[in-house]
Amino acid sequence: MVTELDKSDVLTGLFASWDALDRLLTGLSEEQWRSPTPLPGWDVHAVIAHIIGTESALSGVPTPDVDVSDLAHIRNDFGATNECWVRFFSGEPGADLHQRFLAVTRDRRKRLTDMSDEDWNAVTPTPAGADSYGRFMRIRTFDCWMHEHDIREALGLPASKAKLASPAARLALDEMAASMGYVVGKLGGAPDGSRVVIQLTGPLARVIRVVVDGRGRVVEDFGGLEPTATLRMDGLLFTRLAGGRVVGAPVELDGDREVGARIVEHLNYVI
């Protein structure tokens, strides 16, 4: 099945995410650019280099030929490609990298705005498998939004409640919610018949429901039946756990605690 998403809605979130990154980067000292993030081996500079590289590649720019075979934190081909861009830009001053970020995202805004609906809904390879280009851009929104918070953590600038209630955050959580059937049923090993609720609190509050019947799938409701397991946590914490940025954070569990704890243990699904 191809995921068809409203182009205007997704682009509003993606562009808002780029704007938020621009505001964070404005005026940073070179020392701040080199602040380590929660991502192994990556500082703020590396995160922005990665985003620039991805958007450049989507515009047809070939990946730099850089040897990254000596880096222990690379786990797959996606990671190796990301690291090529990070190393390629590693010697560039932060202020110059910021300008490069603005240039590549300015170009991408025009390309995406001008894209036809036919191309937007066309099937293309994405990090989640073959799906629509629109789904790919929702994944891009998720990725950029997550990296905004990696940078915020590195700089000690957590987002306010108002900043968390953004179009980009909603789309990022939509993308994450779409993967929870796989997380609950496959990674978490919830048995057939499970009805799992992931209840998010705080500014990113929402309820994600998953049933397992041969495989896990996200549903609107359980048809009047009670959940067999409930996981309750702050919404931002959920994104950090699912992104592998934190481990071992306390999560409130109800119902089948063994199943709930196993899901929490395997909540990190991000490549």
Automatic annotation (TrEMBL):
Domain annotation MDMPI C-terminal: ranges: 171-261
Family annotation (InterPro entries): DinB/YfiT-like (IPR034660), Maleyloyr_isom (IPR017517), MDMPI_C-term_domain (IPR010872), MDMPI_metal-binding (IPR024344)
A molecular function GO annotation: metal ion binding
Domain Mycothiol-dependent maleylpyruvate isomerase metal-binding span(s) in chain numbering: 16-152
Classification via Pfam families: MDMPI_C, MDMPI_N
Tree of life domain: Bacteria
Gene3D superfamilies: dinb family like domain (1.20.120.450)
UniProt-recorded name of the protein: Maleylpyruvate isomerase family mycothiol-dependent enzyme
Organism: Mycobacterium branderi
